[in-house]
Amino acid sequence: MANKFSDLRAQMSPEAQVAARTKAESLQTSINLQALRKKLHVTQANLAQAMMVQQAAISKMENREDLLISSVMDFVRGLGGTLVLTAVFPDDKKFDLTPEAPKGIGRVVVNAEAVAPQRRAGRETPPRIKRALAKSSA
């Protein structure tokens, strides 16, 4: 017979319970790239093709706890979007932290072709991703 999780947790040391709770909270607050991809009805294989990587790389990226901003930018770009990063402070001050595209002085929004021309050269957004994006905005 299966054990209840609450019974298993009760058997854990207090330190292990705190560590487990902390880990669970960090997973809940992490960027959920998998949910984003699924919301757009895009498979890992389709996204991998758009990003010119193996499907396993997409799976690893979706399951990482700590991601580089450049990795998230590539992921979002592969889905046909643009990542915008803004820091908001209690006194209502806002700062745009979106990385600039190379040679893009004064640009706020990152242009996928300018940032990663070696990946995107001559490639359009795959039709399946275009359809998913159109469906999600409707």
Describe the structure.
With 138 residues, the protein is mainly alpha-helical. The chain folds into two domains: 30 residues; 107 residues, 434 Repressor (Amino-terminal Domain). Helix content is 55%, strand content 4%. It contains nine helices and two strands; from the N terminus they run ααααααββααα. The protein has a two-stranded antiparallel ribbon. α4 packs across α5 and α4 crosses α6. The longest helix has 16 residues. It starts with a helix and ends with a helix. About 16% of the residues have low confidence.
CATH architect. name of the largest domain: Orthogonal Bundle
Top CATH class of the largest domain: Mainly Alpha
Structurally, the number of domains stands at 2
Provide the residue-averaged pLDDT: 74
Shape: extended
Strand content: under 5%
Biggest sheet record: 2 strands, antiparallel
The total count of helices amounts to 9
Strand order of the largest sheet: 1-2
Mind telling me the C-alpha Rg?
Answer: 19 Å
SSE order, one letter for each helix or strand: HHHHHHEEHHH
Distance between the termini: 47 Å
CATH topology of the largest domain: 434 Repressor (Amino-terminal Domain)
Percentage of residues in helical conformation: 55-70%
> Structural class, from secondary structure content?
mainly alpha
- Overall strand count: 2
Low-confidence runs of at least 5 consecutive residues:
101-122
